[in-house]
Amino acid sequence: MGGVRIHPAHFSTGGQHIMYEKQTLPNGVRIVYEHMPHVRSAAIGVWVGVGSRYESPCEAGSAHFIEHMLFKGTAQHSASELAERMDAIGGQV
Length: 93
Description:
Layout: E1 5-13, E2 16-24, E3 30-33, E4 45-47, H1 62-69, H2 79-88
Antiparallel strand pairs: 1-2, 2-3, 3-4
């Protein structure tokens, strides 16, 4: 992926050593993942540098409002339909 920074890193928990990768996309979105070839599922974490921490006093609450709107569905698909589709493939919203 052009323009993506990849940062191999690791941490330990209870004597177990875990290797993971961090990538920063060109738009600033940060993605952290661990490659586990022995499992047939995925867990994805996405971090975006926005939110109340970055809001001015006149924007207070905007990020929280947008967060709630993300779970309201779309014009073509209701929130429950999207959740059911995710559930059908083993996902969780």
